[in-house]
Write a structure and sequence with these properties.
Layout (H helix, E strand, L loop, with lengths): L7 H11 L24 E6 L15 H17 L4 E7 L15 H4 L10 H11 L3 E6 L3 E3 L12 H4 L4 E4 L2 E4 L4 H17 L4 E4 L21 H8 L6 H23 L4 E4 L18 H4 L4 H7 L4 E2 L14 H10 L6 E2 L1 E4 L10 H11 L5 E5 L1 H6 L1 H11 L21 E6 L6 E6 L6 E10 L2 E8 L4 E4 L4 E10 L8 E8 L4 E7 L1
Parallel strand pairs: 1-2, 1-12, 2-3, 3-7, 7-8, 8-9, 9-10, 11-12
Antiparallel strand pairs: 4-6, 5-6, 13-14, 14-17, 15-16, 15-18, 18-19, 19-20
Helix pairs in contact: 2-4, 6-8, 12-14
């Protein structure tokens, strides 16, 4: 269908009506209509740690405007680097970076546990992340109750005060006892409270389950002090103490996953376990045994599909054979029969010790490994300080934006194709294109692509954005795709533009 120079916008709208929009039964695509390239899919994440003020805020007690400005700078940098997931720590140690009726405010905000910062950092982070086309995953430590670097007095509402029978003093830490059934209910309740009240895209656990060993005065490893729960529940279980501890964690992981899916199936559950499951897997690997020390059977979790994504912390170099990055990544990929999203945790803090090519090469390895789907950077501060890496990420490594992989095991019905509703292009002006949803759906993002000359480019926009301007010069087409909360994509609605030779004016030509 051609549109003449005279009153072309009315004609365009008439064509949309005749076609009943892109969202309904549309005619078959015109063979000459430009087709946008497939949307790239890759998990590109970064951890933003709040414990000890590692990443944010830079120090406790900052005024609210400064805290917000620092968080916006983090989100802006993540967007510039074309990352797509921010893993934001909201519960460092039975405290909260959001208003909670269960746990006290974190001291890392104000300097005093239990003191409100005067706003809701989690709600602010979610809103601003989505504006920038970023997913926001809430990161919880399920069992750590108090970190040794905390400085303020413990608040009266902290679990060590309200339910001291659930808390164990272990070395420099306070720790919830995973063997206490009430602990499982308590930590699950904290996760579900956030899930129900906030529009998060994911729930995230790291590698802390039973704690890493603390040393006693004699220099030997201290055993975790769970004698009470062992006698109450473990002795009668018929399991060895180590197996019982592992089963406590297994049960909790499965319950969290099932509870999330029962409440909001589109919310992703992710775990970033220690990168070595057990020494000898694969055969040349040596190192820490999370199975025997943290009682974390991460291989069982990925084989059973008890999370939507796994980000094993592969914090070693490519070359050393005993902790070989490619060998370990290959092992995890080979133990993923349900094809959950697998993204390697990369340790940017070691960049000063490594060649500048180490992290870029590790990302390249993730892209060449079958059944591997991306990476997560530890951490935001170290990434931002590495100017060379940032330039590489922005300009070459992540040259094009990507969406995180879709959860096709949860949802197989993509959203309806949207419709482009208006397009205006006055002489000498940019072209403004508007669109709308194809139905009464609750989606997360738009993926908007434009063809200028022979080159396509794309951008992730929040679902609230329904208009975008494009440079008029040599614009050939615009394509709009709806992305739902599970990450599934609709068919693209494509609008082609032609330049009318007589008047050198840009006009819409075809659409589907």
């Amino acid at each position: 269908m051609k549109f003449g120079r005279l009153n072309w916008l009315s004609s365009a709208l008439l064509a949309i009506c005749l076609h009943a929009g892109c969202a309904t039964a549309a005619p078959k695509p015109v063979s000459t209509l430009p087709q946008p390239p497939a949307i790239q899919r890759e998990f590109r994440g970064v951890w933003v740690a709040t414990v000890g003020n590692i990443d944010w805020p830079s120090k406790p007690g900052l005024p609210v405007p400064e805290q917000k400005a620092e968080l916006l700078a983090i989100l802006n940098r993540a967007s510039q680097l074309k990352l797509n997931v921010v893993v934001f720590q909201v519960r460092p140690g039975c405290d909260a970076l959001y208003p909670s009726a269960i746990e006290p405010w974190s001291e890392y905000l104000t300097g005093t546990m239990g003191r409100s910062p005067g706003y809701d950092p989690l709600a602010f982070a979610i809103e601003e992340a989505h504006k920038r086309g970023l997913e926001l995953h809430a990161w919880f430590n399920p069992y750590r109750a108090h970190h040794f670097n905390a400085r303020s007095p413990v608040a009266a509402s902290h679990i060590s005060k309200t339910k001291p029978q659930l808390v164990r003093e272990y070395g420099r830490y306070l720790w919830l006892d995973p063997g206490e059934r009430e602990v499982q209910e308590y930590s699950l309740g904290v996760v579900m409270d956030v899930l129900k009240r906030y529009d998060v895209d994911g729930i995230h656990f790291d590698d802390y389950f039973y704690p890493y060993a603390e040393k006693g005065g004699d220099g030997r490893d201290l055993d975790f002090p769970d004698e009470a729960s062992w006698r109450k529940y473990g002795v009668s279980s018929g399991l060895s103490r180590n197996d019982w501890r592992r089963e406590n964690v297994n049960t909790f992981i499965q319950r969290v996953y099932n509870s999330i899916k029962a409440q909001k199936p589109w919310v992703k559950f992710g775990i970033s376990p220690f990168g070595i499951w057990r020494p000898g897997n694969p055969p040349q690997i040596r190192g820490f045994d999370q199975y025997d020390k943290l009682y974390a059977d991460a291989r069982k979790w990925i084989i059973n599909g008890w999370a939507d994504y796994f980000a094993p912390q592969l914090y070693w170099g490519i070359a050393p054979p005993e902790q070989s990055f490619p060998a370990l990544l290959g092992w995890w990929a080979g133990n993923n029969p349900k094809h959950r999203t697998l993204c390697a945790g990369l340790d940017v803090t070691k960049s000063s010790k490594w060649s500048p090519e180490e992290i870029p090469n590790q990302i390249s390895i993730t892209r060449n490994q079958s059944n591997s789907h991306g990476y997560v950077l530890w951490n935001m501060k170290s990434t931002g300080r590495n100017t060379t890496l940032c330039i590489r990420l922005q300009n070459t490594i992540n040259a094009r934006p990507a969406l995180a992989p879709a959860m096709t095991w949860i949802d197989r019905t993509p959203p309806l194709r949207p419709s482009i509703t208006t397009a205006s292009a006055g002489a000498g002006a940019d072209v403004a294109v508007s669109w709308k949803l194809g139905g009464a759906e609750t989606n997360r993002f738009w993926f908007v692509q434009s063809k200028v000359g022979d080159e396509w480019s794309g951008r992730i926009l929040p679902i609230s954005s329904t208009t975008q301007s494009f440079p008029r010069a040599n614009l050939k087409a615009v394509a709009v795709t709806a992305i739902d909360r599970s990450g599934l994509a609709s068919e693209a609605c494509v609008l082609e533009f032609k330049a009318e030779r007589k008047h050198s004016e840009l006009v819409p030509a075809k659409m589907r």
